[in-house]
Design a protein that fits this description.
Blueprint: H1 3-32, H2 37-53, H3 72-84, H4 92-106, H5 108-120, E1 125-128, E2 144-148, E3 151-162, E4 169-175, E5 186-192, E6 198-203, E7 212-222, E8 227-228, H6 234-262, H7 270-298, H8 307-328, H9 340-350, H10 360-371
Parallel strand pairs: 1-4
Antiparallel strand pairs: 2-3, 3-7, 4-5, 5-8, 6-7
Helix pairs in contact: 1-2, 1-3, 3-6, 4-5, 4-6, 6-7, 6-8, 7-8, 8-9, 8-10
């Protein structure tokens, strides 16, 4: 995006915020507040739907997907400018950026039918990947889909599905081949969460928000028209999806983290200044790496295993930023402000950064083996 276009966009946002900042801050704050699954998801969808209606979240999506037809770089620029303004995107936008492009790439007819509802905030979706015995090692998934006269029958369980409770649909990666086929026997489906046989339970976490859920599938009938991509071709979809998860999600988070750093009251304490510099360096490194991934995606290319670097940098930036924020304003002390609960939630949730979306240990193994080409003796 040219500097002229970016400047025009910045001016447009400044003018809009001059008229709408109170409501934007109120909705953003409500979306960050720790809550039970129902009201938590409702707050996210309300904020997203308003931003879409105001014309911000429709930009950068194809017109047939509910957008303005402009380039993906515009979405990234908008997220960045909102973060710099102290307005943080609802977390449902993360799912839009992860699931929407994958559906558009591998099931364009389904995308035209369903993605406009996802982009507009009318619906929220979750991602069904992890299982009780298959987290970062997705090739060991056990949840199974078997053919039937009506399409497919799904049986099994998913866990740690973000914003699962209350979601309208789930993009589920399940096994259609034998267990020994590993990644070669997986298929992706778009499953209605209100379908017969689907049960979702919210999971309490230490941050005070029921951010995750576990989903049980018992003889759930899914028509073949809801299959995404080829039978046994789900691994390629998962790898494509992870490019967006690591790239655009990392970009969304760096925008928020830069906004947090910009609003910290550091003072002239040399120790705090040193820690601020280290955190700023971590977030800047994340920004540059995510930008490289986004440029590749916008050009229709894949960065492959390079995105594992994005994930490691994200984990580091989350922890260093929130550890500094906690040192300056300890979450253990309720200071009576309206923002304390949000501050507590953000800090505690940042503790999980090296685990969610693929553990740090697994990412280092990928980097060692697939990028650095280190043999077992070199690790």
């Amino acid at each position: 995006m040219s500097s002229t276009r970016l400047g025009e966009l910045r001016s447009e946002l400044e003018q809009w915020l001059a008229e709408n900042r109170p409501r934007a801050e109120a909705l953003s704050s409500a979306a960050l507040r720790p809550m039970a699954a129902g009201p938590y998801l409702a707050a996210q969808k309300e904020f997203q739907a308003w931003l879409y209606a105001e014309g911000w979240l429709s930009r950068g999506w194809a017109s047939e997907l509910g957008g303005t037809g402009e380039a993906v770089q515009l979405r990234a620029a908008i997220y960045d400018l909102f973060g710099a303004s102290g307005i943080y995107m609802p977390t449902t936008v993360n799912s839009v950026e992860i699931l929407g492009p994958a559906l558009g790439e591998f099931a364009p007819d389904l995308a035209v039918e369903f993605v406009p509802r996802l982009v507009s905030g009318a619906e929220a979706w979750c991602q069904g990947f992890s299982e009780p015995e298959a987290g970062s090692d997705l090739a060991s998934l056990r949840m199974r889909a078997t053919r039937s006269d009506d399409g497919w029958v799904l049986n099994g369980q998913k866990i740690w599905a973000t914003r699962a409770w209350g979601s309208d649909r789930c993009m589920a990666l399940v096994r259609t081949g034998i267990q020994e086929s590993r990644h070669r026997g997986l298929t992706m489906f778009l499953v209605d969460m209100d379908a017969s046989g689907v049960e979702c339970r919210a999971i309490d976490d230490m941050s005070g928000t029921q951010h995750f859920g576990e989903i049980f599938f018992e003889d759930v009938v899914v028509p073949d028209s809801r299959r995404i991509g080829d039978v046994d071709g789900g691994w390629a979809i998962a790898q494509y999806l992870l490019q967006w998860e690591r790239g655009m999600f990392a970009w969304l988070r760096q925008a928020a983290l830069h906004g947090i750093l910009a609003r910290l009251e550091i003072g002239d304490d040399p120790v705090a200044l040193d820690r601020f510099g280290a955190a700023f360096q971590d977030v800047s490194a994340l920004r540059l790496r995510a930008l490289s991934t986004l440029r590749a995606l916008a050009a229709g290319r894949s960065d492959g295993p390079q995105v594992s670097i994005d994930k490691l940098l994200l984990s580091r930036a989350e922890r260093s930023t929130h550890e500094l924020a906690n040192a300056l304003r300890p979450v253990a002390v309720d200071d009576g402000s309206e923002s304390w609960a949000e501050h507590l939630h953000e800090y505690l949730h940042s503790r999980s950064a090296p685990i969610y979306g693929g553990s740090a240990e697994v990412q280092r193994t990928i980097i060692a083996g697939q990028i650095l080409a280190l043999g077992k003796g070199g690790r």
